[in-house]
Specification:
By secondary structure, the chain is mainly alpha-helical. It has three domains: 96 residues, Helix Hairpins, CATH 1.10.287; 66 residues, Helix Hairpins, CATH 1.10.287; 58 residues. Helices cover 73% and strands 0% of the residues. It has twelve helices and no strands. Helix 1 crosses helix 4 and helix 9 packs antiparallel against helix 10. The protein starts with a helix and ends with a helix.
Length: 272
């Protein structure tokens, strides 16, 4: 704990030095808005490190994300708004306040009860604060990635009863939207809205299945990246460039990559 305090204080001191009049020109020029994009990128890099189950990379990426938190707090302190101490104090008090089953005498039976208690305390905190929600959808950041935004909107609507009774509802909606999208695509009509409706329906089904659509698509994207790179490598081992090959030839290599991965997985499970 002492080392954690020492290193955190050192990070704050480094940021203060970087923002000082004789500090780093780039750091001094930044504003809360100018590094907003990098903050989002760092967050996704943390997620990627978690997905890759790489502790060393996760440690590094968490540090990069922490830097942005300290950076934002330093700029706020310079503007006389709040300090990093205020940030930490606020989250400490919130955690204690919203976990009365741990820090006081409240009782809950399970994780569902914890969530219900959290939501009730949160609503009570906002009551009379001038930040009351006029809609069940208030408070969802509009800049979330599209899949995460869709999931958040659906979860909020479900909390007030606007939801299918079971997964059969969204599955039927997927079939309906897929047929509509196919008709529009085949006729050459505008398909952006239909495609959006189809994806939104898939997000709804994923919610019932307990699967994060954002993480699911990211996993598929990483899988495509991994396999396509192997296709390129196989092509070059055969003295060819992928751009010189036919679709049929590339598809054959793709299937070969899948076979090799399946063989590797079987060998791995056998050896374990």
């Amino acid at each position: 704990m002492d080392e954690a305090r020492e290193q955190f204080a050192r990070l704050i001191g480094i940021m203060e030095r970087l923002r000082a009049p004789d500090g780093c020109p780039w750091d001094r020029e930044q504003t809360p808005s100018s590094i907003r994009r990098q903050l989002v990128e760092e967050t996704f890099e943390v997620v990627e490190a978690i997905d890759e189950e790489d502790p060393e990379l996760l440690c590094e990426e968490l540090g990069d994300l922490l830097l942005h938190i300290v950076f934002q707090a330093q700029m706020a302190a310079e503007a006389g708004q709040f300090t990093i101490a205020d940030v930490v104090r606020a989250i400490n008090e919130k955690l204690i306040r919203r976990h009365p089953h741990v820090f006081s005498e409240a009782r809950v039976d399970d994780a569902t009860g914890v969530i219900e208690q959290w939501d009730a305390i949160k609503a009570a905190e906002k009551a009379g604060s001038g930040r009351e929600r006029q809609s069940a959808l208030d408070g969802i950041p509009g800049d979330l990635p599209a899949l995460a935004l869709s999931e958040s909107l659906q979860r909020r609507a479900a909390k007030v009863g606007f939801d299918w009774p079971d997964v059969r509802g969204p599955l039927e909606k997927i079939r309906e939207e897929a047929a509509e999208f196919a008709r529009e695509a085949e006729s050459g009509g505008a398909t952006e809205e239909e495609l959006g409706d189809l994806i939104f329906s898939i997000v709804n089904a994923s919610r019932f299945l307990g699967v994060s659509p954002e993480l699911a698509v990211r996993a598929s994207a990483r899988k495509f990246d991994r396999r396509f790179r192997k296709v390129e490598r196989l092509a070059r081992e055969r003295g060819r460039e992928p751009g010189e090959m036919t679709l049929e030839e590339l598809d054959a290599l793709w299937e070969r990559v899948k076979e090799l991965e399946a063989e590797g997985a079987r060998c791995g499970s056998t050896s374990s």
